[in-house]
Amino acid sequence: MTDSPKQNSESDAKTGASPWKATVLTLFPDAFPGVLGASIIGSALKDEKWCLESIDIRDFSFNKHRTVDTTPAGGGPGMVLKPDVSAAAIDSVARSTSENGENPRPLLYLTPRGKPLTQERVRELASGTGVIVFCGRFEGLDERVIEARDMEEVSIGDFVLAGGEVAAQVLIEACVRLLPGVLGDITSTHEESFEDGLLEYPLYAKPREWEGRNIPKVLLSGDHKAIAKWRRTQMEQITKERRPDLWIKSSIGEKE
Ligand code: ADE
């Protein structure tokens, strides 16, 4: 097991509350914290604003060869994670981080077959007590385990990774940056892509002219109303062009 400096359900010394906790079930525990140990997310981990536990699925193998996979029933390529081993690993995790057993953490299974992850789901996950994330490898997990343990299948996009570890880091990072006190400037989460169903407006910084390209005049005008209007128009145009699906869903799109 590889862990953050603080793990399990120790209480926050000041508030009495347990920090948001991510438990990752993986065949590659050394892949954690990975990118989650860097930058603001890593500092928040050190500062115990959240905690990370990684559990090696192989520790739950029943034989001396530490086998975790077998051939698929009915034939076909690749290997499938054994249900008994997977379930034993899952069952070793305490789902609740609160003392009274309330708010059990959702058990997520990262797979390209899952429901696409959205900022809305990320916000919900970040507002709970944490997540338990099962990282698939090989061809996948036995369907009976998914059903029996009521796992929520989640995909981070329409492409196939070699396993769920990178996807788990994507999901956890998206959640942790929304936790209170993790981002210094709270407004930065309010004016970003997806916060109101639109993509973000373009950003510019000095110098005024760079390689013959100028910062749009309105941004240098000091007219805050005009700037806000320009940014809003940019958000709408960019969303319409790049993500018509989001545009249709957004409230303005619905009215049109
Ligand atoms: N595992 C492999 N590919 C994945 C994807 N696109 N999303 C989530 N987990 C995955």
Could you provide a short overview of the structure?
The chain has 256 residues and is of the alpha/beta class. It contains nine helices and eleven strands. Adenine binds next to strand 6.
Low-confidence stretches: 1-13
Give the helices and strands as they follow along the chain.
EEHEEEHEHEEHEHHEEHHH
What binds here, in terms of ligands, is:
adenine
Strand content: 15-25%
Distance between the termini: 53 Å
How many strands, which pairing sense, and closed or not: the largest β-sheet? 6 strands, mixed
The CATH class label of the largest domain is Alpha Beta
Mean pLDDT: 89
State the CATH topology of the largest domain: Alpha/beta knot
> Tally the helices: what do you get?
9
Helix content estimate? 25-40%
What does this structure look like?
Mean pLDDT is 89; it is low at 1-13. Helix content is 30%, strand content 18%. The strands form 3 sheets. The chain has a 6-stranded mixed β-sheet. The radius of gyration is 22 Å and the shape is elongated. The chain is an alpha/beta fold and 256 residues long. It has helices at residues 39-46, 83-91, 119-127, 143-148, 165-176, 187-190, 224-242, 244-249, 251-255, and strands spanning 2-3, 20-26, 50-56, 69-70, 80-81, 107-116, 130-135, 140-141, 152-155, 209-210, 213-214. It has 2 domains: 2-176, SPOUT methyltransferase, trefoil knot domain (Alpha/beta knot, 3-Layer(aba) Sandwich), CATH 3.40.1280.10; 191-255, tRNA(m1g37)methyltransferase, domain 2 (Trp Operon Repressor, Chain A, Orthogonal Bundle), CATH 1.10.1270. The site of adenine (ADE) has 12 residues, from strand 6.
